[in-house]
Amino acid sequence: MELTLTTPALLFPAIALLLLAYTNRFLALASLIRNLKSQYKENRNPKLIKQIDNIRRRIFQVRNMQACGILGFLICVLSMWLMYNGQEKAAEYAFGASLVLLMLSLLISFREIQISVKALEIDLEDLEELIRNDEAL
């Protein structure tokens, strides 16, 4: 495989969009945490504890997604710098490492989505319980 300076550069737009998506997920979780905190202060519902635990796991995943994405980006830049300095073999290894980190980031993102679905299932259970209670009245 021949690696040119433009090959890692092709990843830049994708990585930037990926990091933007991760940041948006983080901001949405931060907002959700603030909302759950105020709900819990008003009504110490034990079911909210499940949601809070779920969010704690999701934040851990988002942090890891961002870390892997950022490290992948940095190593991709390192790969370009190594190519610029004529160290092609080291650049190939660095580029390969950046691809592995980006794949890991995507796999962690997939896991975070699965955890997110679990949170929605908890909400649906609560909603179904409210509906059953309303129907019983």
Describe the structure.
The chain has helices spanning 6-9, 11-42, 46-84, 88-136. With 137 residues, the chain is mostly helical. The protein starts with 5 loop residues before the first helix and ends with a helix.
Q: SSE order, as H and E?
A: HHHH
Total strand count, please?
0
Helix fraction by DSSP (H/I, runs of at least 4): over 70%
Structural class: mainly alpha
* C-alpha geometry: elongated
State Rg. 21 Å
Distance between the termini: 70 Å
DSSP helical segment count = 4
- Stretches where pLDDT is under 50 for at least 5 consecutive residues are none
Gist?
The protein is mostly helical and 137 residues long.
Question: Which keywords apply here?
Answer:
137 residues, mainly alpha
How do the helices and strands line up, and which of them pair or pack?
Blueprint: H1 6-9, H2 11-42, H3 46-84, H4 88-136
Helix pairs in contact: 2-3, 3-4
